Amino acid sequence: MAINNIYLQNEEISIEVNNLWKIFGDNVEKVLDSDTQFDGKTDILEKTGCVLAIKDVSFQVHRGEIFVLMGLSGSGKSTLVRCILRLIEPTAGKILINGENVCDCTAQQLTELRRHTISMVFQYFGLLPHRNILQNVAYGLKIRGMAKSKREAKAQEMIELVGLKGWESYLPSALSGGMQQRVGIARALSTDPEMLIMDEPFSGLDPLIRRQMQDELLDIQEKVHKTILFVTHDLHEALKLGNRIAIMKDGEIIQIGDPEEVITAPSDGYVREFVQDASPAKVLTAKRIMEQPNVLLYEWQGPKTAIHILESTELDNAFVLGRGSKFRGLVTVERLLEIIKGGGKSIMNALEPDLLRCTSDTIVEDLFPLAVSTRHPIPVVDDDGKFLGEIHTSTILGSMIQDKETELGD
Amino acid sequence: MIEFPAFIHVPLAEWTDAAMDWILRVFSGVFDVIGDAILFMLLYIEKFLLWLPWTLVIVLVGIVAWRATHRWWAGLLMAGFLVLIGSFGYWDLAMMTLAIVIAAVIISLLIGIPTGIAMARSNLVETIIRPILDAMQTMPSFVYLIPALMLFGLGKVPAVFATIIYAVPPVIRLTNVGIRQVSPDVIEASRSFGATPRQTLMEVQLPLAIPSIMVGINQTTMMALSMVVIASMIGARGLGLEVLLAINRIDIGRGFEAGISIVLLAIIIDRITAGLAPKQEHSASSS
After folding, report:
1. Looking at chain A, which residue has its C-alpha nearest residue B199?
2. B62-88 pLDDT tens trace
3. Long-range contact list for A161-166, CB < 8 A, 24+ apart?
4. Same structural domain for residues A261 and A344?
5. A258 and A275 fall within a common domain
6. What CATH code would you report for B17-279?
7. Within the 305-364 window of chain A, which residues sit less than 8 Å (CB to CB) from chain B?
8. ipTM above 0.90, yes or no
């Protein structure tokens, strides 16, 4: 937790929501009145006739992160994100976009905010059925009053970014759901906004397409670096995409944390229930399960030294590092003996070709295919090529069982 | 307690008369101006239609009907209908009738589409206008022929006026419905990109309401045509007057010829206006 706080302080805040309330109905004051106590949503409905959609919600979204709002349908998450653009008027509270309170905006400032700062992607796409793909993508720019040739050039660029080149002149109805949502994403990106609000963008798509779209979103995010507020009811999606996750229930946020915190330390029964059907394979990262090898070889050691070390520890392979723990590769006893026979002086000649490796944030699920295709342990290497640890097939399987037990045990 | 007591009496008739008197006194100038404008427009349309050579009209109608319905035989049939009307000796009368219909429809659309838009954008406006439309459609048309007569005098103008009252409700209703049935998802998306209500109306709601509005225009046109016979009672010349005269003389053959001519005209106008309504699916790549 302490580490997380430091992380927060260092981040620039893009969206800040403070004590936001949204109540549908006529007796709003009665609900907000602190003198009367209510016992849950149904109690409020019975006593005042009001529907409480969002209850005193506060959170912050940092610049450049994907912040996921997760909750079951009816938990208020869609209402919440609509309040941010004031597509729905919030009842009370503050919404700061880059420090400016949206609730105080004039109609014109609001229009500017929607045209330039934040774009939205919708669950049901919201494409204009009478306009072709190019015109749909260019819509936000047209609204702004951009000249036709200019906006169409920009739209073309976005269509290519989402991989829909060649579909420009088709109507949305000719496209599959996944493709239509790509149009939705291209349209949102075309205005070059600072932030994206994505309201269950992939929920209507079948699982295979959904996974593919998630990967593509991550790829696109790599290129565009937007601040993204992502709404979903799917925990796996939240864990895959979110830098941080907020879990909503009955209009309240009940936990905010990074994926690992949410899955390993669910704040209450509700979150735990959510997390129960999350496979650890989708959450646990290589960093969490990797081990330090007993034996490491170094590139300046000769083949005979290496053989000696390996034989004395009864191993038949080991990783080779360079200076500064730079990862070099893996040697086996078999290969070393061949080198020695051939009179080789460096163990670098004995390195196994095409060795698989992973990074510290590779999730366990992605380690399975690696584990299947190699007899050797998998090295964990950071972005600079530094060796961090190793993972054995048995460790991967063990982690699945153990983590399941510690999570579900209590 | 069997008969309704006579002392409970709402003098609506007197009030209406008084209101009519007041309107005539105060607004007679206004109605003169409106009447002149309608007459001016009507005369030009009539002159133009009568000036056109009949051969050209028949060929044009044939081509337009063929284009609108995508069937060559429909074009031939419509052209044939016109020849038939001419052969009854009703060409000029048919053109006069058509002029009244066209003038009434143009004015109906000018009034009806903006009213429909206003209705769609405000529930209050809808609540107010809806009963008025109901009244316009259920009130027997003879009832407003008399005030129309008093406001504009005998002739074509009150006929156009009465026709408008009778024919304008469908286009108002269908414009309203067309705009209201546009998917809220699309409207929300449009708003989210910073479209003003006006932009959303022009870019999203109206284009998507066009099929519905076209049905409204079609209905309005048909109702205007059906009003022609009744309007002839206050002095509009045309096919309607022929029907009226035939009824007075119990001249079945003549009445049937004139009646059939109206029906043929109706079929031609219906097929053409219905065919012009855009079909969403077919205009695929129109960038």
Report:
1. A143
2. 999 998 888 889 899 999 999 999 999
3. A161/A186, A161/A189, A161/A220, A161/A223, A162/A186, A162/A189, A162/A216, A162/A220, A163/A216, A164/A133
4. no
5. yes
6. 1.10.3720.10
7. none
8. no
